[in-house]
Amino acid sequence: MTPRSAAPLPAAKAAASLDAAAAIERVPLFESLDADDRRRLLAVSSVRRVPARRRLFRRGEPGHELFVLLRGRCKALAVASEGRGTVFAVFEPGEVVGEIALLDGGPRTATVTTMSACDFLVIGRADLLTLLESEPAVAIRLLAACAARLRHTSELVEELVFLSLPARLARKLLQLARDYGSGTGSGTHIALKLSQRELAELVGASRESVNRQLGHWEQAGVLRHERGFITLLDSAVLRRLASLVIY
């Protein structure tokens, strides 16, 4: 199902369910701001609540706002005409969303949709540029975030070009286990629920091909896949596959 565009609640209602002042203290981008600076930031920004599986913005749209994720999880992806997508990034609380278009004044470079209900701190372009001019430390952190995003995208392109689907999927499962995994008696349980389509988007493949590969690994005892959750039973097999590069 195609995500609908977000129809955000008024800022006052969203803020009532979220202590934005406390939330931005945990945002790395604003670590250098003192209490007065944070109050000024809140005065020129708003909090927007977006339900799960809604579109925050679409690739090609004008970008006049910066979003800072305060709660929830969202993803940036490129969507082909037939509906298949490739996820460039998954955002966690504290990360910035939509910074490229805001900095260069161009259109949005990707489509962003929410994976769960999300709260965003929203800052307009003029207010952000004023903040960056007066707070060099914030500007440096934003540049670092852009550089990290570029580095990740470069790695993703390399994987799509040089790795087979099993190798890409193995790498992604190992990464998810590192970020969201916990040890169990039988292996490593990934505590992040993903649909087959979402997992396919993460590795730039079709849902059907990912489903077949997961089924093959499940039969071989490499993993267990139940109700959207995956438990790795034999990570050594995945590590060997993840190291294979096609030249």
Please give the structural blueprint.
Blueprint: E1 4-5, H1 11-16, H2 20-24, H3 35-43, E2 45-50, E3 54-57, E4 65-71, E5 74-79, E6 85-91, E7 96-97, H4 99-104, E8 111-114, E9 118-124, H5 125-134, H6 136-162, H7 165-180, E10 181-183, E11 188-190, H8 196-203, H9 207-219, E12 223-226, E13 229-232, H10 235-242
Parallel strand pairs: 1-3
Antiparallel strand pairs: 2-9, 3-8, 4-7, 4-9, 5-6, 5-8, 10-11, 11-13, 12-13
Helix pairs in contact: 5-6, 7-10, 8-9
Please provide a written account of the structure.
By secondary structure, the protein is α+β, with helices and mostly antiparallel strands. The chain has two domains: 4-161, Jelly Rolls (Sandwich); 163-242, Arc Repressor Mutant, subunit A, CATH 1.10.10.10. It is 44% helix and 24% strand. It is built from ten helices and 13 strands. It has helices at 11-16, 20-24, 35-43, 99-104, 125-134, 136-162, 165-180, 196-203, 207-219, 235-242, and strands at 4-5, 45-50, 54-57, 65-71, 74-79, 85-91, 96-97, 111-114, 118-124, 181-183, 188-190, 223-226, 229-232. The protein has a five-stranded mixed beta sheet. It has a four-stranded antiparallel beta sheet with strand order 2-9-4-7. Strands 10-11-13-12 form a four-stranded antiparallel beta sheet. Helix 5 crosses helix 6, helix 7 (165-180) crosses helix 10 (235-242) and helix 8 packs across helix 9 (207-219). The longest helix is centred in the middle third of the chain and has 27 residues, at 136-162. The protein is elongated, with a radius of gyration of 19 Å. The model is unreliable at 7-17 (pLDDT under 50).
